[in-house]
Amino acid sequence: WESTAQLDLGLDVAFFNNRLSAEFDYYDKQTHNLLLNVNIPGTTGFGTQTQNLGKLYNKGIEVVLSSDNFVGKFKWTTSVNFAWNVNKVTFVNGQIIGTSNLNRVIEGQPIGVFYGPEYAGVNPANGDALYYLNTKNADGTLNRGTTKDYDAAQDVVLGNPTPKYTGGITNTFSYSGFDLSLSFQGVYGNKIFNSAGQYMSSNASNGYDNQTIDQLSYWTKPGDITNVPEPRLFDPNGTNNSSRYLSNGSYLRLKTASLGYTLPKALVSKWNIEKVRVFVNGFNLFKITPYKGWDPEVNADFSASNISLGNDFYSAPQPRTITFGVNIGL
Fold first, then answer.
1. Do the Cβ atoms of 239 and 289 come closer than 8 Å?
2. Of the candidates 87, 126, 121, which has an alpha carbon nearest to the alpha carbon of residue 107?
3. Mean pLDDT of 76-102
4. Which of 81, 88, 152, 256 is 20 to 30 A from 320, alpha carbon to alpha carbon?
């Protein structure tokens, strides 16, 4: 079994007759005997073996602020939550443990860190996909030259699949029977690997899927400046696992919105009813994100590996939903 030693420290405070309150929490989790699919020699007949190997820690803070901004006939309350987390693998016996995608377990890096070749765009002379060499020069500096040979490019750390910051804010208003609630939620500081891009954003090279519209800017003639290589059927011209299909996964989403009206009690009491409220609720009404895929808040479920984080493989986006209803209290 994995084992975790955990320290939690918390502080709750309130001011102005509880109209302003705050919760502060600090945690430090030290995990040992990580359960990982460790790479083993192919001569065994297997590619990996599940072992208890490794150590990591999670440290961070969580903050919740709540306020009653107005408490009269017009009421307005606000709740803000914020979390910051640092995750780092401290021991895996010097190994690099990986998956079929870009996720890896590497000492000194977050669990599931993206690790692989760094995409460098397209050679304007011939339409070849290019990768940064990222090899070490004799003086210890990094060689930022490029190559069309995918195997010649050195694997490097490309990003963290786990958000560094998460947070949300909810505002609730009420006045004369009307009530409105708006909840925003978001994350910052993570990357997403769109592994479906190797099929649907592949400069039409694989011959399988319809292509996303951005692939129309593919290289066609010498001198073209583009990030989409020349289409070459069944030729992996830039479609290998690399940072080409990594995107910023940060987002801000209006998670829920609710608007309602509660009929006056003097009116509903004539019908021997305690309460009647009509409402309309909206879910996922809009989002702001630089992510190039369909939805930054999804993760592929095709992999059995517990380190396959931040992967999007044709994951269905969350629907935008609007519902109407009536609550009747007898």
1. no
2. 87
3. 93
4. 81
